Amino acid sequence: MKSTFISSDEENIIVLLHGNSSSSKVFKDLRLNNSVLIPTLSGHEINENPDDNIDFSLQFYKQELISLINSYDQPILLVGNSLGGHLAMEIANQIKKLKGLIIFGAPPVKKPINFEEAFIPVEALQTFLKEKSTDEEIASAASVTVYEQKFTEQIVSDFKNSNPKVRSATAEDLFNGNWSDQYKSFTNLKCPKVIVSGSHDPSVNKEYLKKVVKESSHNTSYIELENCGHYPTLERPEEMSTIINHLAGDVFKLHLK
Q1: Of 51, 57, 45, residue with least CA distance to 18
Q2: Cα(first)–Cα(last) distance of the chain, in Å?
Q3: Strand 2-6 versus strand 35-40 pairing type
Q4: CB-based contacts of 220: which residues, under 8 Å, 6+ apart?
C-alpha cells in the first residue's frame, strides 16, 4: 500500500482515508497542525495500466491499513471519507494508539446492513459499484455527489484513475454481508468521535446519523456543514481543517495527561 507521510514538529499523527474510486487529492487543501499519514488504497491513483491481480476486498484493505498504521508508534486520530470512513470503523478497535475518530459520508451500518435506515437510494450513485460505466454515467454520478459543480472535475478524474475492479469488489463485499457491525463498533468505541455530514450529501440519512450519535458512548458529536455534499474535505476544507484540528488538539492533549 502506497502512502504519503507529511511530518511536523508534533509527534501525533492524523490518518486520512479516502473513499471508493477517490484519492488523496480530496484532502489536498486541508491545513492540519500535526503530522499526517495518507494511505492510497490499492487500485486507486493508478495513472497507468491497472493490475487486475491485486485484491481489492474489504479484508485486504483492512489488513493493509492496520499493518501500516500500527507501524507508527504514535498517537493516532483516524479520519475517513465514504469507504474510508467505513474502513476506519472496521479497523478502529485494532489500532493500538487510537485517540479519536472522525467520519463523513459513512453511516455506521449494522449487520446485516440496514440499507434503508442508513442510506438514501440514488440511482446515479450505483455507478460507484459497477465495473463498466459510460462517461455520461460517471459525469452524472460525480455531479450528484457535490453541492458546487466546480468539484466534479476532481471526482471524475479520481474515478477514471481507479481500477474498475475496485468498484465491483466493493459491491461484492457490501451485498455479501462482509462488512462488520460498524454501528456496534462505533457506538462502543471509547474515544472522542465526530460524525460530519454535508447538508447536501445525497446518499446518507442524516436522521440516522443523529440517532447513532445519541446512542453512542463516550464523547460523540454531530456536525453538519451547509452547502456541502459527500466530500467535505474537498468542498469545505477550511471548516474541515478547523474540525479536525480541534478534535486533534483535544485528544492529543488527553494523551499527554
Answers
A1: 45
A2: 34
A3: antiparallel
A4: 187, 192, 193, 194, 195, 213
* Across 110-139, average pLDDT: 97
In tens, the pLDDT along 93-110 reads: 999 999 999 999 999 999
pLDDT in tens, 230-253: 999 999 999 999 999 999 999 998
Sign of the CA dihedral 194, 30, 21, 153? positive
Cα(52)–Cα(166) distance, integer angstroms: 9
Angstrom distance (rounded) from CA 110 to CA 215: 13
Residues 169 and 57 sit within 8 Å (Cβ to Cβ): yes
Is pTM beyond 0.85? Reply is yes
CA nearest to 151, candidates 230, 80, 85, 204: 230
Backbone angles phi, psi at 102, to 5 degrees: -130, 130
What is the secondary structure of 136-152 as a DSSP string? HHHHHHHHHH-SSGGGH
Q: Grid coordinates in use for 81?
A: 471519507
Distance CA 111, CA 252 (A): 32
Residue 169 identity: A
